[in-house]
Fold this sequence. Notes:
Blueprint: E1 5-9, H1 16-27, E2 30-33, H2 34-40, H3 56-62, H4 68-81, E3 85-88, H5 94-103, E4 108-113, H6 116-124, E5 126-129, E6 135-137, E7 156-157, H7 164-185, E8 191-195, H8 200-215
Parallel strand pairs: 1-3, 1-4, 2-3, 4-8
Antiparallel strand pairs: 5-6, 5-7
Helix pairs in contact: 1-8, 4-5, 6-7
Bound molecules: BIS(adenosine)-5'-pentaphosphate.
Amino acid sequence: MAAPRILILGPPGAGKGTQSSNIAEEYGVEHVTTGDALRANKDMDISDMDTEYDTPREYMEAGDLVPDQVVNAIVEEALSTADGFVLDGYPRNREQAEELADMTDLDVILSLSVDREELVDRLTGRRVCEDCGANYHVEFNPPEEEGVCDECGGQLIQRDDDNEESVRNRLDVFDENTQPVIDHYADRDAFVEIDGEGTPAEVWSEIQNAVDERTE
Ligand code: AP5
């Protein structure tokens, strides 16, 4: 089979980024993530798009969705050059799901589920390397030396939207906008629900089985 086209869905903090890195490495596909793409372009001028704010930054710091037209363009460009992918962070509402259906077919649709209060703990304790993007958690996955990345020695920082107020808003935005998208995919053969509450290694093992079953 050609390189797989994988979609990973789930609420903020479910482990999409953590598991997408494993998927990209194991299956040799590109990790296409709207969150990282937007963080790299936070101050992009979008004032000509007739949006409420002039840059993505304000939407992201509040935990609200960045306007569809900005995100759709990022994904369309990334998928047009990818030979197999794991798509993380998109689609987040029905309009984006309709756009995606026009862009590509999907071989596997993974949906990670995790209890809400566990998500709040995971996100408020998350730390990321400002140089290489590696992901840690102060309690569940601490670095060897506090504040320093094991991989590259870079400084670990807290994302601007990982404070409790933004986290709770992101979870509300997920329930209202993204859960209906998951419900819409749930009856497809490619769809599989993954229990996201095990250890990262347990979740990864379940994901590998699901992808292998659907792509062999
Ligand atoms: P984005 O960057 O996509 O954030 P998110 O969806 O909120 O997801 P996260 O990255 O926070 O969580 P994750 O599921 O990847 O979890 P992780 O693996 O890091 O989006 C940010 C913002 O950008 C949005 O709010 C919006 O403004 C904008 N945006 C993005 N896409 C958009 C779109 N399509 N449309 C409009 N706007 C868009 O894990 C979390 C923590 O838990 C880590 O500390 C990790 O170490 C730990 N952890 C992971 N797995 C486990 C485990 N099994 N057990 C214990 N701890 C674990």
